[in-house]
């Protein structure tokens, strides 16, 4: 198994007063993707940033943007996020009344469709959509805040998704988000994940390049 491992800094943990500089720092450290957490104060009990910030960053960096929509009925905003520069758009299966239609819309808008499950939602909830997505995001904390502890309940879900993708012959990226550090990175990669979001572990480190190369070496 030599699946490509990507480490995606969660920009929620950046210093917003110097977002461009923080992005430069993470790009130089070897990030293959930026993770952009959008929160509406409804689906999750927090509000973060949105379309205008994404637009500015898109002009500033060429690193692919992975937009994690923690918002109710995300179909209302797909076009705006795609136009603002989203390369991947992740919706939550729990938040959308028309999941297949929204995944199709993401593709029509030119982004990679991705679907996410919260810790309490079984992996099987997204099995009906695996043919429509390029990525599945398994939340390993309750969405809403950075800096929480990793929930091991995510591990069997990652494994079940990887097995199902392999069974169907799908080249699926499996992303994990929440509480990723050097130790939990090893566990999720062993379970079958290949895109690892890291917020506090990366931005809190004085050697982000060392963290990223360590995680990549675990494959
Ligand atoms: C939580 C967000 C995460 C979060 C990860 O709702 O989706 O992306 O910022 O942060 P850490 O790595 O600190 O758990
Ligand atoms: Zn996220």
How would you describe this structure to a colleague?
- This protein has 219 residues and is α/β, with parallel strands linked by helices.
- The chain has a single domain, classed as TIM Barrel, CATH 3.20.20.
- The protein is 35% helix and 19% strand.
- It has eight helices and eight strands, in the order βαβαβαβαββαβαβαα.
- The protein has helices at 19-29, 51-60, 78-83, 99-108, 154-168, 182-191, 200-203, 208-217; strands at 6-9, 34-39, 65-70, 88-92, 112-117, 135-139, 173-177, 195-198.
- Strands 1-8-7-6-5-4-3-2 form an eight-stranded parallel beta sheet.
- Strand 7 (173-177), helix 6 (182-191) and strand 8 (195-198) form a beta-alpha-beta unit.
- Helix 1 (19-29) crosses helix 8 (208-217).
- The model has no long low-confidence stretch (mean pLDDT 97).
- Bound molecules: D-xylitol-5-phosphate and zinc ion.
- D-xylitol-5-phosphate (DX5) binds next to strand 2, strand 8 and helix 7.
């Amino acid at each position: 198994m030599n699946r490509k491992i990507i480490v995606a800094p969660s920009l929620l943990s950046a210093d917003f007063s110097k977002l461009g500089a923080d992005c430069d720092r993470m790009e130089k450290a070897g990030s293959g993707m930026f993770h952009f957490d959008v929160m509406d104060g409804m689906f999750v009990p927090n509000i973060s940033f949105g379309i205008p910030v994404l637009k500015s960053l898109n002009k500033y960096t060429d690193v692919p943007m992975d937009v994690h929509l923690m918002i109710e009925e995300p179909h209302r905003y797909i076009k705006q996020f795609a136009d603002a520069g989203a390369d991947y758009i992740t919706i939550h299966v729990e938040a959308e009344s028309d999941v297949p239609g929204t995944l199709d819309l993401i593709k029509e808008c030119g982004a990679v469709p991705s679907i996410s499950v919260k810790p309490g939602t079984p992996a099987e909830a997204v099995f009906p959509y695996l043919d429509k997505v390029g990525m599945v995001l398994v939340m390993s904390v309750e969405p809403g805040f950075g800096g929480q502890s990793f929930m091991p309940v995510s591990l069997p879900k990652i494994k079940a998704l990887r097995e199902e993708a392999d069974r169907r012959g799908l080249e699926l990226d499996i992303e994990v988000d929440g509480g990723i550090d050097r130790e939990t990175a090893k566990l999720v990669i062993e379970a079958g994940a290949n895109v690892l979001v890291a917020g506090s572990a990366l931005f809190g480190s004085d050697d982000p390049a060392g963290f990223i190369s360590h995680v990549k070496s675990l494959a």
